[in-house]
Design a protein that fits this description.
The termini are far apart. α1 crosses α4. This protein has a 7-stranded mixed sheet with strand order 6-15-11-7-10-9-8. Strands 1, 2, 5, 12, 13 and 14 form a 6-stranded mixed sheet that branches. The chain has about 280 residues and is α/β, with parallel strands linked by helices.
């Protein structure tokens, strides 16, 4: 990570060894970064090879010629887009060199960027933001009235993914839908929730053994099933952090700005299943 300081007084705010205090909480706060495979690149574009058709194998008699075949290959080109976050802090906090003060700054920047990242990847945000799940074409779907009254639709989503050779590694939905699912009971008259819980983590949720993630970026009454081996989050290497004492001079505050370049890439749209009400 590179750090650019606009004044000598900024030395204490984010020394180089605190760089990970921005990127680490960002990765933890962003739901998209947890359900997709993160790929890093230093290039302007990242190309993901896509196998549309596998080579054909066959049984042959001993000594017979083997018929050659060629796979049908394509490339998915992902161009990371610029994403920036800005936080304003007091000069006193900036000059406090304690790890706790640096963590406050890093967490604030991370939350700002993570929200925008999830909005783009899991929802629909206009250009120059990259296209996300909200505009993805070619995905499979499960739609019907009352699909969130039980887990049948999720079993169907797992099956649809398996028909194209994918394995669902995560479900992601919005808070209201997650609440509706959390209220589904395992039997009539029972108070036990149907969603599985991880005994090692009281706040985690699972559907048919698959983790359920929650983000306000997902549209209402919608759940996405994702295979992380076929869905990627491409990040340009390095997060640039800039510090300015000039813009907020009159209030004795300091601006801290973080910028990065990132975009999702869905190499196999059919491996994504959208579950929604009719």
């Amino acid at each position: 990570m590179a750090f650019y300081e606009s004044s000598p007084n900024a030395d204490s705010i984010l020394p180089p060894e605190y760089g990970q205090l921005v990127i680490q909480p960002l990765m933890q706060s962003s739901v998209a970064a947890r359900i997709l495979t993160v790929l890093r690149t230093s290039a302007y574009e990242y190309r993901v090879p896509v196998v549309n058709t596998d080579p054909v194998a066959e049984f042959v008699n001993e000594g017979d010629e083997i018929t050659p075949s060629q796979p049908l290959l394509q490339e998915l080109t992902v161009r990371p887009a610029k994403l920036a976050g800005l936080t304003i802090i007091s000069r006193e906090l900036a000059e406090d060199s304690s790890p706790a003060a640096a963590k406050i700054v890093g967490d604030g920047l991370a939350r700002d960027i993570a929200r925008k990242l999830d909005d783009a990847v899991l929802g629909t945000v206009a250009s120059p933001a990259p296209a996300g799940l909200g505009t993805l074409s070619g995905m499979q779907s499960v739609t019907g009235a009352g699909v969130f009254n039980n887990l049948d639709a999720f079993a169907e989503a797992l099956s649809l993914a398996e028909t194209v050779g994918a394995t669902v590694t995560a479900f992601v939905t919005g808070p209201a839908t997650a609440l509706a699912l959390g209220k589904v009971k395992n039997a009539t008259g029972s108070n036990q929730p149907l969603l599985g819980m991880d005994a090692t983590s009281a706040t985690s949720r699972q559907i048919l053994g698959v983790p359920l993630y929650v983000s306000s970026a997902v549209a209402a009454n919608t759940v996405y099933a994702v295979d992380s081996s076929r869905s990627f989050l491409v990040m340009r290497e390095g997060v640039q952090v800039a510090v300015s004492t000039d813009a907020y001079f009159s209030s004795d505050r300091i601006g801290v700005k973080a910028t990065m370049r990132v975009a999702p890439g869905f190499a196999h749209p059919a491996s994504v299943v959208k579950i929604s009400t009719a």
